[in-house]
Amino acid sequence: MAVTDKEGNFIVGSKNSTLVMDSISKNKDSSLDDGAFMFIRTKKMLVSKYYCLNDDWILYSIVSYNSLLTATSLVNKIIVIIGLFMVCIAFWVENHTANEIVEPIYAMLNTIHKVSEEDYSVLVNIASNDETQILADNINIMVSKIDNLVNINLRDEIRYKDAQLIALQAQINPHFLYNMLECICCLSELGKKDEVRKVTIAFSRMMKSIITGEKTTTLYEELEFCKEVADLYKVLIDGELEISIDDGLNVNEVFVPRLMIQPLVENAFIHGIKPLGEKGIVLVSVSEDCDTLVITISDNGVGMSQDMVKSINRYLENPDSKDVDNIGFGMKNVIDRISIFYGHKAKMTVLSSINWGTTVEVVVPYE
């Protein structure tokens, strides 16, 4: 910095100011009112001129170019640091605000997704004082109401299915009674008193088992009942019953609907072996396959027509179908009870051909 009078005479200044003023005097053509760069001893300097109030003195400001660059670099660094700091603050504020909005929404979406998968035990757990809390509370109320309605409908459906099973089981009992009485009547007409006595005793014992009212029974009891039925029909029909059970299967611990196998065995004797006119065999095979129970009833009787087989298979695919003209009462009853008891978890197939016998396979969950 240097001070001169209006004629340019040096008055006062910092160190080396006289050298600077000599350079300025040599560049009189340069306008220093707005500042100008000039080289003083090979150094680039910014020189500015300011007039004092009385216009008698002139103040010269002299700053090296390198000093300006240093100051500018520092300012730039400060600006960058402040800018980064503001970006971090903005990012934190944005993230915090977004989390307060997005996280409750994700929690509600997760709850709704689980409810759509029939999991009604989940609730939205969020703590806020805005509209999301109101929405979460209403979702929880909705889920609770759905859970109550589902439980009510489930109980009603179970009661309805139980009533259907009881009704169908009640239907099969008179059907079995009719067949047994017809058998006893035929024996009486043939004058076979001893056979009539044996059949009547066995029949009374079987009826005692039937009228228990239980919807399920063990697989062992069901197969034993089939053996007793076969013994009764042996009196009139020249046929035999063979039962094959998988060695690894505990028939005392497996429960099935009561009278699920017996009507199919009875059908095999009456509609398969009896019209054959010669000795026939009914084979019942029970095995386990991938957590399922496979029950197969086969006979070498007269078989069924393809129209009848198609009608049975159509009814198996759609139990609500009215196409039941070619389906026997016992077969239809078993299909209906299996469908009610197991739902879509059960599968039943029928294969038959004239003079080649019939095979019925029932696949149910191993419970």
Question: Could you explain the architecture of this structure?
Answer:
The chain has 2 domains: 2-69, Profilin-like, CATH 3.40.1840; 151-365, 2-Layer Sandwich (Heat Shock Protein 90). The protein contains 8 helices and 12 strands. It has helices at residues 17-26, 65-116, 131-189, 193-210, 219-234, 262-273, 306-317, 329-342, and strands at residues 2-5, 10-13, 36-40, 43-51, 57-64, 216-218, 239-245, 255-257, 280-288, 292-299, 347-353, 357-365. It has a 5-stranded antiparallel beta sheet with strand order 2-1-5-4-3. Strands 7-9-10-12-11 form a 5-stranded mixed beta sheet. A two-stranded antiparallel sheet has the order 6-8. Helix 5 (219-234) packs parallel to helix 6. The model has no long low-confidence stretch (mean pLDDT 75).
Task: Give short descriptive properties of this protein.
5-stranded mixed beta sheet; 2 domains; alpha+beta; 5-stranded antiparallel beta sheet; Heat Shock Protein 90; 53% helix; Profilin-like; rod-shaped; 8 helices; 367 residues; single chain
